[in-house]
Amino acid sequence: MRCARLLSLFAGLLLLAAPASAEPIRLDDQRVAALSGLPNLRGAAVSAEALSGRAVVVAFWASWCPPCHPEFDNLKRAQETYGDDVAIVAVNIFEEFGSFKGTARRDAFLARKDPPFHVVAEGEGIAALFEGVERIPTVFVFAPDGSPVMHFVHAQGASKTHASYEEIDAALEQALGKGPGQG
């Protein structure tokens, strides 16, 4: 009987410690305004108009993050594939991590990758608006109405380190209401 009570108490403590299941986030006016307020690093400035009527990809990254490199290539390919139907916003966070200080490494990364999409800085302040982004890369894909389509987080110790082009492509096809052979 004592063992059953201990197990019951332990299970109750686990439930208290477990995060409440939240509904998936939407790309709402508050998040659009937060993205629009970030300093622009590359490409056109982010505005509500730039994100309106399109599928939107929001990707959190840092130049020192190895999985962020191939993911940037996948985002570039998606932007080139979908053109004006998609707005991609790459949000630089955690840039000054460990021994990585200053902007030289980030600037070299951007010069090398030459992204054809919005790149903004100082995203730590809005990470809480996107489910408290704590790991990079983290990618969200939203339909033109702001509804969520995909959310990828590089989990610590996971063998899958970044969203593949195929995953991003499938999410954008879904976001834009296109099926195989329709787009």
Automatic annotation (TrEMBL):
<dbReference type="GO" id="GO:0017004">
    <property type="term" value="P:cytochrome complex assembly"/>
</dbReference>
<dbReference type="GO" id="GO:0030313">
    <property type="term" value="C:cell envelope"/>
</dbReference>
<dbReference type="Pfam" id="PF08534">
    <property type="entry name" value="Redoxin"/>
</dbReference>
<dbReference type="GO" id="GO:0015036">
    <property type="term" value="F:disulfide oxidoreductase activity"/>
</dbReference>
<dbReference type="InterPro" id="IPR013766">
    <property type="entry name" value="Thioredoxin_domain"/>
</dbReference>
<dbReference type="InterPro" id="IPR017937">
    <property type="entry name" value="Thioredoxin_CS"/>
</dbReference>
<protein>
    <submittedName>
        <fullName>TlpA family protein disulfide reductase</fullName>
    </submittedName>
</protein>
<keyword id="KW-0201">Cytochrome c-type biogenesis</keyword>
<dbReference type="InterPro" id="IPR013740">
    <property type="entry name" value="Redoxin"/>
</dbReference>
<feature type="domain" description="Thioredoxin">
    <location>
        <begin position="12"/>
        <end position="177"/>
    </location>
</feature>
<dbReference type="InterPro" id="IPR036249">
    <property type="entry name" value="Thioredoxin-like_sf"/>
</dbReference>
<keyword id="KW-0732">Signal</keyword>
<feature type="signal peptide">
    <location>
        <begin position="1"/>
        <end position="22"/>
    </location>
</feature>
<keyword id="KW-0676">Redox-active center</keyword>
<dbReference type="InterPro" id="IPR050553">
    <property type="entry name" value="Thioredoxin_ResA/DsbE_sf"/>
</dbReference>
